[in-house]
Amino acid sequence: MSREMTCPAARPGRRVLLAGLHLLILLAALCLGGTGAQAQNAADPVQTDGRIEVGDAAVRDSEILNRIEKLLAEIEGYGAVTVSVSEGVVRITGEVIDNAAQDRLTQIINRVAGVVAIENETEISGTLEERLAPAMERIAARTRNLLANGPIFLVALAAFAAVAAGGWLLTTRIGIWTRLAPNPFIADVYRAVARILFILTGLVLALDIMNATALIGAVLGAAGVVGLALGFAVRDTVENFIASILLSLRQPFRPNDFVDIQGDQGTVARLTSRATILISPEGNHIRIPNATVFKGRIVNFTRDPRRRFGFDLGVDADADLAAALSTAVAALEAQPFVLDDPEVGAWISEVGDSNVILTFTGWVDQTRVDFAKARGEAIRAAKMALETAGFGLPEPIYRVRLDGAAEAAPAPAKDAAAAPAPREAVSSDLPEAADPERAELAVAGAAAREREGLDGGENLLDAQQQAE
Q1: Residue 64 contacts residue 115 (beta carbons within 8 Å)
Q2: Are the C-beta atoms of 343 and 381 separated by less than 8 Å?
Q3: How far apart are alpha carbons 446 and 179 in whole angstroms?
Q4: What per-residue confidence (pLDDT) applies to 276?
Q5: Residue 296 CB: number of other CB atoms within 10 A?
Q6: From CA 107, how far away is CA 340, in angstroms rounded?
Q7: Residue 385, pLDDT score
Q8: What local confidence, expressed as pLDDT, does residue 101 receive?
């Protein structure tokens, strides 16, 4: 370095580059550099915080200059800087890499004893090579550091791979997890959790080997924030997944059960991690989110194989009601599909305008007969028994009044008017389609196809486990 004050070197002329993009980059760098230099030159001298000494206690300019030159010689990036000192005022000229280096230079000189003020007239270097050189040196230094720490990094990577591979081998043994879990779906959940724990353990071990355990807290904190954000973003999906776990544990229904969930009736086809799939009596697919199923009202018509049916029949108001009840009850008890326990029930429910309403109930085993067909056959048997015994099942009678019609004497009734003879009930064999013991297989077949279809690989219901 020179002890005399020198003028800044003349800026190089405009360079001719091969591509227009390089030319634009160079012009932008020159403009930014010129602006920075002008702003710095226009700035007032920087005043220091130290006391201004006088007399013999004052530090000589030569000592200040000597100290500053030694400092700058040890710091990289200030080889093109020239320093001059006069009466404690330090004047700096030359070129630096960037604004940060310019500010750092002022801070360094400000700490030197005896400096009264600082005039920093340095300029920002506009040369692309000079700006890239420090970055390339840092990249080279980091590459050398990485190569030096390569063996320990490989050891940490091997430890992580060993722990992760051990966890993968352990979680692939399905038999172990099946014995621990109540059903295959929970076993898969256990396996996924175990796999994540093994990966985290391997990561912590690798960071500990690399002496980078301080990163563990940052990684876990970032993972927590990301998990919280994802939890809010996919809240419905997570809620349905948790509901599927609880439903698979509780098993409130089984495959082929006929249920009513929040007003949707159908046969249970399967339970996935997102939804419960029903097949309606019309053959339609009904997908209900598991969160709705878990929190909603569930009516399982198939859990108990015994199910009660009921129907109403109307007889003449002047008929022997007790005899009518006994006749219909006997007809119901004679049906092979009606259970003896619980017993058949019958009572008078109400008196209508032209008849008396009788209510009859009975129980069937849903595993042996079709419920709807059994109810229909019971109605047919009770109606036929009443008609055979002479009980009429009258139709509604309405009296019509005509206003303004001429009043006429009623016609004399015919003597010995004979009442119409009761019609004899006719019994025929049931068609095969109406046979109660012939189950309706269409919906059951649709549910089976749903479970065995291409997209039916996931089913959280255990057909062998009793429903809750």
Answers
A1: yes
A2: no
A3: 32
A4: 92
A5: 14
A6: 103
A7: 93
A8: 82
